[in-house]
Amino acid sequence: MRTLIVIILVVIFPFAILAQGEKFTIARVKYGGGGDWYYGQTQIPNLLKGLRERTNVDTETKQAVIQLTDKKLYSYPFIYMTGHGNVLFTEEEVKALRLYLMRGGFLWANDDYGMDKSFRREMKRVFPEKELVEVPFDHKIYHCFYEFPNGLPKIHEHDGKPPRGYGIFHEGRMVVFYDYESDIADGLEDPEVHNDPPEKREQALQMAINIVIYALTN
Amino acid sequence: MFNLQISKIFPLWLALLFFLISSAIVIFFYYRTNKPLSWRYKYVLIGFRIFSVTLLIACLLNPTLILKEEIFKKPNLLFLVDDSQSMSLIDSGEELSRIDIVKKAIIDSSTKSIVDELNNNFNVQLYQFSTDAVSVKELSLKAQGALTDISKALSTAINDWKGQQISGVVLITDGNYNAGEDPIRYVQKVGIPIYTVGVGQTKAMRDIQITRVEANPIAYVDHTFPIKVAINSGGYDGKEVMVTVTSGTDLGKNSSLKDSSLLKLDSKNGEQFVELKIKPKQEGILKLNVSITSMPDELTIENNKYTFFARVINTKIKVMYIEGNPRWESTFLNRALQRDPNIELSYLVATKQGGFYPQSSLKTFPNRNELFSNDILILGDISPSFFKNDQLSAIKDFVENRGGSLIFLAGRNSFGDGGFGESTIKDMLPIEIGQGGARLLSSPFNPILTQQGISHPSTRLSDDPAENNAIWRDLPSLNRFYTGIGTRSGATVLAGHQQEKGKPLIAFQRYGKGITYMIATDDLWKWAFVVYSQGGDDSYYRKFWSGTIRWLSFVRTKADQVNVEPSKQTYTKDEKAIIKAYIYDENYDPIDNAQIKAQVQTPVGTSRDIKFVFEENGRYSAEFTPTIDGNHKVEVEAEYNGRFIGKSFAEFIVQTATLEYQSTQLNETLLKQIADISGGTYYNINNISELPKSLKEAKESIVSTKEKSIWDNAWLLGFIVALLTTEWLLRKKKGLV
User: pLDDT tens, A36-84?
Assistant: First the structure.
């Protein structure tokens, strides 16, 4: 009996470690303030699938979920946040996010309509000395894999405003990319979720791949 | 005062029990003697026997006499006076220099001197210092020390009295330390009250000074070399001054390089900056003098000039990095290489489709000439099938015949199934991988440096071997290890895996004229990113990579088995220069008992022999104390078993520091902090007469304790033997058995 347990442990244990995986994945930020941080559960898995199929980035199938104060944060140099509602960081989260970004981490924030005001307010707490600046169309993020000569594509209509890509830069490197009035992530969902047309979904996937490739090669 | 103490090992009740039993036995046997005996005689015999037994039992109790004595010994008081150059300044409104003010206050005062007064209650030990504290019978202050190192002065003086009680330290200084550890950090450790006495003025004086110059220590031929000059001024707002940089006149093509810029002084916002630029013309050491116009009534014009040195080299190290898998290992390595000012990087990231990502510096794989213009090629996680056959043979040629270096980075594509281990260039790998590729172990481990790794330029994160080991141990642990069959014969392993003995983590081998190097993990990025300790940053990650790249390029450019490195580029006069030599054989294995001939050529044309002493792992060390300013050249020649190994040279500069005039105001804040933290008090030199009063209370008495064992002496033993003998003789006389 004991031998059996040992054999089972020996066989299962390496898989348990491998299953945890060290391939590329994206960690979704679980933030406070009441906003729907969990919204759109198919977005990241679909992006990871797209990366696997179209690029040589070796990806996991699942997203990770972390809070900014988790120790595991440093296992994921690429984090993602989205939502429609209020974002509120604790004082510890503000400090943790600032350090993480300055050390080499990257945050992609996707405004799913309604996150803009609180997201900007919270980023000002993280980087009081820096501004979210509009990313020029000739920036690498629009050209590093797919070509987006006119900048961010418009995926989902809300107010009829033009899509805008904003960034925060530290020592020449973009550490935060924020898409506003575009809702890239909307087009990453499974087709039946929003019934976005195929060409919109393709544009969304291409832009999202560019964001990952930018973070990985710069 | 005394106490009597008995052994705690042997309880008193047991001793009493012994005594009673043995006495009872003695009395019992004497009660029935085999020959009749008078009771008087019996009493005497019983008395003798019981008395000796009692004494023996008493000895077993180990009685100890404890003597306590209160001694009123004068406690030690260390009295340190700053004797550095900044003490020669005359503050505005004063007639005497700082040092003369000190002399007047502590030695020449018309009444009784402070030192004499302190001597009544203390054993005063006088020291004067600029870096080391020097013990003196009488102070002879000249204000000539070229540096001020307060923490070192305190530590040398305090260590002189190790094991003895020091009841306090008096520290007289202007607080302008410009060398050594932050005194606050030292003071936090010592736990001895320090009474600080400040000399000088705290407010800004009429002065213009160059506080520092920011420039890269390496400059490149025909490239603009920017120099940022920081200037502090007081009392001259609105005046215009000229800031100039010039190179020395004896530097060949680099002579008389010059740039200058006008600056309108404004003291309200602290430091002002001026940017100057020069363009060096040839390789070598460049001496640069920065100067600023001086005003007639400045506190000192010593700080209106600043000299520094830069090493001019021909080109940056050219590195080409080809990555086949955008991953965090490549992201962080790319960032580190891009940030290194001495590296010119071409970064190529392959796509799944067989080309390169658009931001790569080339659109296609470089042709032979382009490839050969690099010093180092890094192959990331890329499959050999990405390259055409002629491209693989160009890579082989690049190392074998051109003498370039190749770094293999582990990954699924490069070390796994179908990786380089099975390619036509598999013998370039310093490890043997075998069919099916390397096995990936995913569990946390820490690298262990080998004997070679401890002091090898690639893995040397500290010059101190023990510290280097500790640094490697404390870096964040790695999770992924690609393990092959083992090290290729002839390869040198620098680091291994904690558990997988004999499997290399970092190894290299000589390959033709060049070197091939490999790292068997793709997890090193953790060292750049993970916050692993308070204040821990990516500096060790960058140091590891810049050290490795530098060493590999050095091997290429010089192919030297003999290397010589001074510990610093510049020394001050009378500062000990430590020079290290590293000697390797043709396989780059360290040689431990090479014969080294070495000499230092001074700027005036004379030369002095220096002696290298073997340390470990092919490393040797020599010392040289310069006596004149200027460029010095160390020449080293090594032999092994009568065979010539090679020769090499290095240069260093000696310059008299002008650091002493860079910051001139009394640093009262520092002195108050030192006093606060250590439990002392701060005084201005004008109030030094109050010092002896407050120190009196600090006086302490010392109780000395002596223990004296009572039984442990020969007389007692003799006495017991005498008792027993007497008893025996008496028994004999009466014919008792």
Answer: 999 999 999 999 999 999 999 999 999 999 999 998 999 999 999 999 9
Residue B470, H or E segment: helix B465-474
Which of B479, B478, B385, B486 has its CA nearest to residue B438? B486
Instruction: Please identify which residue in the block is written with the tokens 């039993």.
Output: B21
The closest CB to that of B358, out of A54, A77, A143, belongs to A143
Q: Which of A103, A143, A217 sits opposite B331 (nearest CB)?
A: A217
Q: Can you give the three-state secondary structure of B208-257, one letter per residue?
A: EEEEEEECCCEEECCCCEEEEEEEEEECCCCCEEEEEEEECCCCHHHCCC
Q: What is the pLDDT of residues B598-648, one digit of tens each?
A: 999 998 889 999 999 998 878 899 999 998 888 888 999 999 988 888 888
Length of chain A: 218
β-pair partners for B207 = B234
Per-residue pLDDT tens over the stretch B69-83: 666 677 889 999 999
The answer to whether B99 and B212 have CB atoms below 8 angstroms apart is no
Beta bridge partners of B241: B263
Distance CA B173, CA B193 (A): 16
Q: How confident is the model at residue B108 (pLDDT cuts 50, 70, 90)?
A: low
Cβ pair B10, B19 in contact under 8 A: no
* Position with higher pLDDT, B351 vs B268: B351
* Residues of chain B neighbouring A17 (CB-CB closer than 8 A): 442-443
Which residues, other chains included, contact B726 with Cβ-Cβ below 8 Å and sequence gap of 6+?
Answer: B48
Containing A134, the helix (H) or strand (E) segment is strand A133-134
3-state secondary structure of A206: helix
* pTM, two decimal places: 0.57
Contact B97, B143 (CB under 8 A): yes
